[in-house]
Specification:
- The protein is globular and about 135 Å long.
- The strands form 4 sheets. The protein has a 6-stranded antiparallel beta sheet with strand order 7-6-9-4-11-12. It has a 4-stranded antiparallel beta sheet with strand order 2-14-5-8, with no helix packed on it. Strands 3-10-13 form a 3-stranded antiparallel beta sheet, with no helix packed on it.
- The N and C termini lie far apart (128 Å).
- It is an alpha+beta fold.
- The chain has 3 helices and 15 strands.
């Protein structure tokens, strides 16, 4: 009986040893798998790391929308006369006098933008020529069209006249071939020979609401030209109308 008990105890001891050994092996395998999984999860090749870093700094640049092209504001067409005072013709002075200076023409034009408030059949502008009565100026009348550039680019002027060797400071008269309707116009003055020293008188720092003045194709908002007259076929209350924005 004692011998049998000893055998049972021995068998149980062996069985417990085997179980402990198997448990230890299983635990070791689990630890190795955990370490391997950790290594797989954390190790990234250097090339891929560089690519990820590069991708991280890429930004999308929004497209820049071009600013819309500016459009000049034209004068509203309509009756700007304020009413007709008389059916008699009148020479309307669209200028003021003062401490003036001589503008001498170059190869580029001088131009005056204006708004006639009723029908007119001519205009006048005093021109100097160096007090020697020698020189030539050309007057050309255009209907104002949106901008200065578009206006002077028209195929031909409505009216034109050439004045040769005129008396110094004479009021040169551009008589129209027909009566022109009220509206906005541009008088362009040129000379074929700038060496003759012809030109007009202007007032610096004295703009006039009836005029937009262009020297050498550039608008000068701080000056006005003296002795500029419109020859109306009747007499309006308002001698000039509002001007479109100068461009």
């Amino acid at each position: 009986m004692k011998k049998r008990n000893r055998c049972i105890v021995l068998m149980l001891s062996v069985l417990m040893f085997i179980v402990c050994a198997l448990s230890a092996c299983s635990s070791g395998n689990n630890n190795e798998q955990e370490h391997a999984a950790t290594d797989i999860a954390t190790e990234v090749p250097a090339a891929e790391t560089a690519e990820i870093a590069t991708m991280a700094v890429i930004t999308v640049t929004p497209e820049i929308t071009a600013a819309p092209t500016a459009v000049p504001e034209p004068t509203v067409k309509g009756d700007h006369s304020g009413g007709i005072v008389s059916e008699d013709p009148v020479n309307a002075s669209l200028f003021v006098t003062g401490s003036h200076m001589a503008y001498i023409m170059t190869e580029y034009p001088l131009a005056i933008q204006f708004y006639a408030t009723t029908t007119f059949d001519g205009l006048k502008l005093s021109c100097h020529n160096g007090n020697n009565n020698i020189g030539t100026v050309v007057f050309s009348l255009y209907e104002w069209t949106n901008t200065y550039e578009e206006t002077v680019a028209q195929e031909a002027p409505l009216e034109t006249a050439t004045f040769v060797d005129y008396t110094d400071n004479d009021s040169l008269y551009l008589k129209f071939s027909q009566v022109r309707e009220d509206g906005e116009y541009l008088l362009v003055v040129t000379t074929p020979d700038p060496a003759e020293g012809v030109g007009v008188w202007y007032l610096p720092d004295t703009p006039h609401d009836a005029q937009h003045v262009f020297f050498e194709d550039v608008y000068n908002d701080f000056v006005s030209v003296e002795y500029f007259i419109l020859c109306y076929t009747k007499t309006p209350k308002n001698l000039y109308g509002p001007l479109s924005q100068a461009w």
